[in-house]
TrEMBL record:
An example Gene Ontology biological process: cell adhesion
Record key words, sorted: Glycoprotein, Hydrolase, Repeat, Signal
InterPro entries to which the protein is assigned, alphabetical: FG-GAP, Int_alpha_beta-p, Integrin_alpha, Integrin_alpha_N
Source organism (scientific name): Paludisphaera borealis
Organism lineage string: Bacteria, Pseudomonadati, Planctomycetota, Planctomycetia, Isosphaerales
Protein's UniProt keywords contain Disulfide bond: no
Protein name (database record): FG-GAP repeat protein
Gene3D superfamilies assigned: Integrin alpha, N-terminal (2.130.10.130)
One Pfam family hit: FG-GAP
Amino acid sequence: MLFGKRGPRPSKAVRKKVAFRPRGENLEAKILMAFDLGSTTPPALPNIATGNVGINMVGSTTSQNAGASVAELGDINGTGYDSFLIGSPNGTTPSVSLVFGSQQQSTATTTSTLDWLNTTVPLVTNVAPNGRVGALNTLGTTGQVNPISGSSTGAYNFTGITFIASKSGSSQLGFSVANAGVINGTQAFLIGAPNALDAAGDATSIGSGRVYLVYGSTNLLGLSGQTIDLDNPTATAGISIVTYATSVLGSRLGASVAGIGNFLNDGSNDIAMGATNATVGTGGTANSGAVYVVSANGIPTSTNTTPIDVSLFGQAGGTAGLVLAGAAAGNQAGFAVSGAGDVNGDGLGDLLIGAPAAAGGNGTAYLVYGGNLGGLVTNNFNYNFISLARVGQPAGSSPATVPGAAISGGGGAGSERAGAAVYSAGDFNSDGVADIMIGSPNYGGSSTTANQGRVTILYGGANNLINGIFTLNTIPAAVSSLSLIGNLGDMAGSALGFVAPINSGQTNEVLIGAPGNNSAYLLPGHGGTYTGSFQLSDAENPATLAGVQFTATTPGFGATAFGSSVSGRLVTSGQIHTADSDLVGDFIIGAPSYTITSSATAAGGGFIVQGAMITLGIPPATNVIQTTITQIDSSTTSPFAVNPTTPDAMKIYVTNSTTPTGQPFVASTDIDPTTITVNGVLFANATVTADPNNANQAIITISPRSALKLPSGNSTLVVSGKTLAGSPEGVQTFQGTAAINGGSGGGGSGGGSTVGAVSTPLPPGLFTPVSYLSQFGGSFVPTISAMSQYNYAPLPMSVALSQYLPPAGFRQRIQAFHGQKVAGRRQNASRKNDTGTGVWTLGRSVYNRGKFHNGNTYTWVHSGIIVPTTRKVQRFTSAGNKLPG
């Protein structure tokens, strides 16, 4: 059943005089799909153990805060199974636990594989079901006991390694952890310790910070059960550790760490290390924060005995590397860092940097495009660095602009702290280009919206589509985006991550941490762009987000801070397993205040969720509302005759319709006029009025039309915008497209020639009949020459498929495997299946499966006038899955 907040959920805004009726099927889905991974009082076992959903690894001492950071690492030890990092930065001895997936400790010195997927509850037959909960302090030992029940009967002997840092007892080791990717040919991971000592190890330099890069290898299996001191790496054979530190006191290097791919364009993967309190250069801006980037080409391949000083990166006589400094004092640049993926389609990795104290506390997230950035370094305060203040500046700025975007919180009441978390969204809209996420956990400033938090997904595109300086409330019209708003007190966006596909044929999911209400949300990607604003209270609605909400409560022990950290990874080429024996996405959620017994308050824990054990919905491919343009000015025949310059105002008539989820779209009352965009030009002064002659459409008036710079001849006009928050679907995108003729005359009803018998076919778009004699003769089958006189606008594949009526099972599979949403039969009011009058689509008897080859990509380039213009070039890639039957 549904745990956590049980109060009434906010309904959609409803129309006047129309009563709200809850949708029963949506409520049922919420009840069935919600997972509470705790919900029991010790010594009972949490649901993740009794329900066989995954693995729960918990701390053992008070205020250990295990799970303050987590990372899904992939195959770090050569077993073929993914491993996980769980940071425990507080308590008597800060530590980081490396948990090996699907491995058990057979003897004191050997390990063996026991696949988590094929085990049952209990993991060992005929014993109490306590094998899916383990204690981090006994990793790699035999005879382990269940930390809740205290029983060793049937307990699983989890394998792994514990890391500590002896040079500073209060190092906060594990404050950040991350998958570094492949470094010098070997999978590696990063551990941050922002309260550690400086590069010289001076005992008075606590808070300077360190970062440790640890290389993976098959040798790690032989180290299971050992505790490795990262500050004395040569004491342990078979493992290579590279240490970074700084000579700038109080920098807090290691507050964030990330592997960022080929960002510096030198053919190797790079790593980034955030230092939130760094002061860059002698006399530089105090405590602006910084991010230090180094290429794998400059990372040692074996253990270094002397820490590498990151403050010397890029300096004369220093180490090769790049320094990116905060724009102003106290910005906390580097509070979060992440690889963004390839957001602009140039083949290079891009970088995300969070500075949540910038912009007056509303925060700023920086997207920096990868490339040869060395030429952009300037020398200020006797120091070589790049200021983040230059990111997204207009071309021609001095010093030169840094390609990318500076995206700040929207302002308003409170401090949003945008950039407290930043992460790649993978290819969330399945267009072949990476997308990005920005977390704003303090969004919502009133007493009824305090700390809701929000996550903004910005969809990437070629040619630096996400570019410039803007706020999350004023995202450019050219950038498609999705806003996800948390519940009261959620602090949604405190942590972000992506997950490999769970449903076959779908794109990746995203993870959103909301520790204020002990929640995390898993949302599946879409086959097309999904835009607008949604409440995460609607996360499990199959008609919209189709996701899953996870919670972790322990009655009587208070908050768990579940969702403070999240991590997953994408499936890579050649991968054979995840944490178990499949390729279904697995992930981990941290709960640093999780309490397992009264003797270990806030010991914390990490919840490893196996994707095969949960059910995830299939969301709509897109939620863009389609409207029809029926008239422009006084022109009522397509292509509409439109004067490019006069009169000053242009009237565009658009129709009512339904949203992709079946809600009504009434153009005259639902459209937000301040969001009207025509051909990419924003008309914030637009007006929307009801058409006095047609109750089913509205008139959008924009001015001046000259801003459109319409060409002469044939072209396309696209009007789009957002719906009002109070409309049935909330803030969603609508769009209408029409063919126009920008020739002489404006607003007329035609201007084309009278057509009788035509001997020479007219070019597409110029045929505007006043009177017309059919050219088909006595046959209902037109000739090619006759058809050439008509405008040709091929149907997009999804529209063409919708003309047929595949059985419901085929419709679901086509969407799941190919991302093509096929609408069912649109019926009349009789509501009878396949019967009645007014049916808009063909019967299922004409339906047949296509001949696409699995795994192949097909491209169609349509000539002439294409509606919409974005479908002129179409690509369709089979996901490599055969349809049943």
